[in-house]
Amino acid sequence: MNVLILDTATRIEIVTIKTKEKFYDLTSRVDISHSVTLFERIDEALKGAGIAMQDIELIGVGTGPGSFTGVRIAVASARMLAQVLDVPLIGIESPLLWALAAGAGPGNAVLAAFDAKKGRAFGALYRKADDEDIVPIVPPGDYYMSDILSAFDGKSTLICIGEGIERFENDIREKAPESTIIRNFMPSGIPACTHAEARFAKEPERYRDFSAVLPRYARKSDAEIMLEEKKKSL
């Protein structure tokens, strides 16, 4: 099955294609708007994989939480492509997409978190099960790091990844001194291709409606908060 994976929830732009013969991963850091680069990368990935856009049979997209603008770009682009190509679309929480790429062994815990400013993190905590599934312990959301770490049992190996994860090092070391913090982690979309294909195989009809895939913001934007405060003051 030809699968396209997209995620732009952080400055790391994930563009990966799986064909019947191979994977082609074009993930990289982008320091300008993803709206400028995303379709160029998709075109480059298609050429690298040796297929055309119309050959894509399934799309998976990171739905956040993360950068509000970044999440919107990926989800809107994926929805448009799914509609035009008439292919199924699977939304994958961005922390899960990253956690799948962490290379965790059975029983390991994976903390995938992105700096959300204001001392908080967009993140989640997972456990790698013996059957190779990634099981959520703390679901993706907007948290203080201490809230996520409070669910860590302290017994398993904890792998910590995500853009800006080093900003939470003191909190992580206090709760899990032996944890592995991977700085500048560059996720691959390859495991997400396999994940999306497996989900589709189990429930193929569930993912036919592209409009059901929505951004996961986890918090209100500053503009929304300001508007609400303005309305209250009237």
Can you describe this structure?
Helices cover 33% and strands 25% of the residues. It is α/β, with parallel strands linked by helices and 234 residues long. It has 2 domains: 3-94 and 188-233, Nucleotidyltransferase, domain 5, CATH 3.30.420.40; 102-181, ATPase, nucleotide binding domain (Nucleotidyltransferase, domain 5). Strands 1, 2, 3, 4, 5 and 6 form a 6-stranded mixed β-sheet that branches. The protein has a 5-stranded mixed β-sheet with strand order 9-8-7-10-11. The chain is globular.
List keywords for this structure.
single chain; 234 residues; alpha/beta; Nucleotidyltransferase, domain 5; 6-stranded mixed β-sheet; 5-stranded mixed β-sheet; 11 strands; 33% helix; globular
How would you summarize this macromolecular structure in one to three sentences?
The chain is built from seven helices and eleven strands. The strands form two sheets. Strands 1, 2, 3, 4, 5 and 6 form a six-stranded mixed sheet that branches. Strands 9-8-7-10-11 form a five-stranded mixed sheet. The chain is an alpha/beta fold and 234 residues long.
